[in-house]
Amino acid sequence: MPDIAFWNKCNNKCVMCTNMDSFVRQKKDMYGLKFHIARLNRYLAGEKGIYVKNPQRRDYINLTGGEPTMHPDFFPLLYYFRKKTAGLNITLLTNGRIFSDRKFAEKFLKIAHPPFTVAAAVHGSNAAVHDGITGVSGSFRETMKGLEHLFLMRGGHGIEIRIVLHKMNIKNFGAILKMLLRKFPETAGYRIVAIHYEIEGRSIKNQKIVRLSLAESCVEVGKAADTIKKFLEFRLYHFPLCMVQKSLRKLCWITLPEKERIYPGKCLKCVLKKNCVGLMREYYKKFGDSEITAVNSD
């Protein structure tokens, strides 16, 4: 199943958001209850061209935004999607702030029957870093309180914490992981995903403050290797295998569609190519391929 934008508005203003400003300006009726239901039914009936991103996938659904939980009909939509796609994993991509409302969290969990993952973004180890990235004072407090509610009610199961790495938080990466271990020490029930930021949407406009090379990113990820190993499940997205510490390569996943990644000439003889994401196409346009090297043996 594809990525489905539930709602085009958000209560954060993240500097590295991948959405274009034009996305926010789209008419609300393009995301209404009846519109979503009709699209899903057409897709399930086999009609092509309904969804744009990852339309070929049939093993999961990503509910994205904007912030999906802000949809005025969020619960009816969630109920319908869960009913129509029983057995498929649904992942809700969220900033997690709304779950600071305990009643909302309780109602959500009554509908979000497994397999269901809540993927919440944490941008810093404290309010200064996190709120500086979201542009919203108090967002760190609400996100962490939301996660606390979900952990309390679900024991962490079905929770994913995402950390998008860029210039504004890369030096804080290790501290973020240590903070999460302190707050949620039982790591068996949840996973961490560290993602090198994508050059699209708002991040293009904010390149001066978010620009980060993969080389710089990999240095800080490597420094945090011992902390990373304390989590039972940890993933790295958008990292070429040749640049990652050998002990961490098994954590690297390919999540981008083929059209969004590229393998420069030097990759062709690399023994790791088959299981490597290569370079993000837009990253390659900005940074080139000088950072990567072909690996002769694994």
Main sheet: strand order: 1-2-3-4-5-6-7-8
Low-confidence regions: none
The proportion of residues in beta strands is 5-15%
Q: Helix/strand-derived class?
A: alpha/beta
Major beta-sheet overview: 8 strands, parallel
H and E string: EHHEHEHEHHEHEHHHHEEEEH
Mean model confidence by pLDDT? 95
How large is the count of helical segments? 12
Q: How many β-strand stretches?
A: 10
Percent range for helical residues? 25-40%
Question: Terminal Cα separation, in Å?
Answer: 33 Å
Please state the overall shape, judged from the principal axes of the Cα atoms: globular
- Radius of gyration using CA atoms only: 19 Å
Report on this model:
Helix content is 34%, strand content 15%. The protein has 298 residues and is α/β, with parallel strands linked by helices. Helix 2 (33-44) packs parallel to helix 3 (74-84) and helix 4 (102-111) packs across helix 6 (139-154). The radius of gyration is 19 Å and the shape is globular. Helix 7 links the parallel strand 5 and strand 6 (190-196).
Write the layout of secondary structure elements.
Blueprint: E1 3-5, H1 21-24, H2 33-44, E2 60-64, H3 74-84, E3 89-94, H4 102-111, E4 116-121, H5 127-134, H6 139-154, E5 159-165, H7 173-183, E6 190-196, H8 202-205, H9 207-210, H10 214-223, H11 225-228, E7 234-237, E8 252-253, E9 261-262, E10 279-280, H12 281-287
Parallel strand pairs: 1-2, 2-3, 3-4, 4-5, 5-6, 6-7, 7-8
Antiparallel strand pairs: 9-10
Helix pairs in contact: 2-3, 4-6
